[in-house]
Amino acid sequence: MTRDWSRYWHSADEPLEAMHAHFVRHVYHRHSHEGYSFGVTDEGAQAFSCRGGAHTSAAGMVMAFNPEDPHDGRAADELGFTYRMVHIGPELVTGVLADVTGGRAGLPLFREPVVDDAVLARNLRALHSALLGGASALRRDELLTATVASVVRRAAASGGRPAAAPTGAALIAERARARLHDSYLEDLTADELAAAAAHTRFGVYRAFRAVYGMAPSDYQRQLRLREARRLIALGRPLADVATHTGFADQSHLTRWFVRCYGITPARYRRAARLTEPRPRPPLDG
């Protein structure tokens, strides 16, 4: 049986990352990303749950996750799957679309997390190969623009209309989420979250799961992992990062990092170091 493997690329200057992996045994814990995640399955099939349904991405299919889309992932059979994933920050997507349209562009939304589109798959593979293959910055930018424009044109369901003011469960969940963002490094209690949301403990838990697809404690851990990613990319010692972000120790951080990102903190740090900005040569004169 082929062993699990993964490669990672991390931009030093932009919210842009790429992963190439083959998984047989690895199972992703339910998680989400701050930005968009676009992937293409090369071989095998990946099964996952997202937006209240079960999905499978087979060879040649494209995955499109909106920002904060909770999802998990695992091999659909014992042969495993090989896939490529590109993570793009929302501000980078809107910047590209503004360039393409010549004006301000809202955040696009993707209704279906799996799209069967050979053109999108080809475009994503080209961008992914450029990111992991050491292409020039100009070439990366060209392919990023072409890929984002293509995926929005061919697969987006909406151009990001302004959302209505939240009411009911959405309002409760939003208040709890705001409290978590303000204090995710603290040892928050259910009572404190309930007070922030002006509701009962169970009501907050139920509303949060309904709106954000995970329990408040899972969301808090996710915020801590995102902060850990940021600090690891800056080269901070892993033990210090674990302590700062509320994990019991480095091993505890590593276990959850792998469950959610499919790569160890040490390997993520090496990927970040490989893409550190190069110092510019002095100007002549």
Automatic annotation (TrEMBL):
Keyword Transcription regulation: yes
Family matches, as Pfam families: AraC_binding (PF02311), HTH_18 (PF12833)
Name of this chain's protein: AraC family transcriptional regulator
Keyword annotations of the record: Activator, DNA-binding, Transcription, Transcription regulation
InterPro entries assigned: AraC-bd, AraC_XylS_family_regulators, Homeodomain-like_sf, HTH-like, HTH_AraC, HTH_AraC-typ_CS
Residues covered by the HTH araC/xylS-type domain: 174-271
